[in-house]
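Recall that a protein's primary structure is simply its ordered list of amino acids. Everything else, from secondary elements to tertiary packing, is in principle encoded there. The following example makes that idea concrete.
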Amino acid sequence: MVRKWIILLVSLAVFVSNSGTGKGEDISQVSWLHYLLGDQYSDEDNFDEAIVEYEKAISICPNFPEAENNLGFALYKKGKFFDAIVHYKNAIRMKPDYATAFNNLGAVYYSIGDYDNAVLSYNKAIELRSDYAKAHMNLASCYFKQGKYEEALRKYHEAKRIDKAYVSERVNQG
């Protein structure tokens, strides 16, 4: 963990030293730094601190879809599903081709039992990125919950065709 923080700090120092000095650039640098800190906290499962950092990044740079997406993820991990939905939708509004945000939005809908919206979100993620094994696997799980076993099996096989290692790992997790 200490090694990750050292790498992060060195990366930040290099980033800042190689950047311009214009006022607009400084603001985006500060936003980016908060975003990276949020990622670091999230990697450590410290979602409370991650939320604080992502919110700071967004307050500085309101058009930051990656920060919105990652804030949504941190909120999701804290069980704040409806707040997560808001931030995933913000990310998608800013970046309509953001397959990861659609997949994550589907995961929230799945978690609250809204399988119809989960299916729509997963299908949109797959439409944007057909080789997205995670979205195919999530869609398979959703179809299974809906009792659509043939469709679930088809999506499972598609996910396995795309990324056999990912599917094997996920199946072994239970």
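The chain has ten helices and no strands. The domain at 97-174 is CATH 1.25.40.10 (Serine Threonine Protein Phosphatase 5, Tetratricopeptide repeat).
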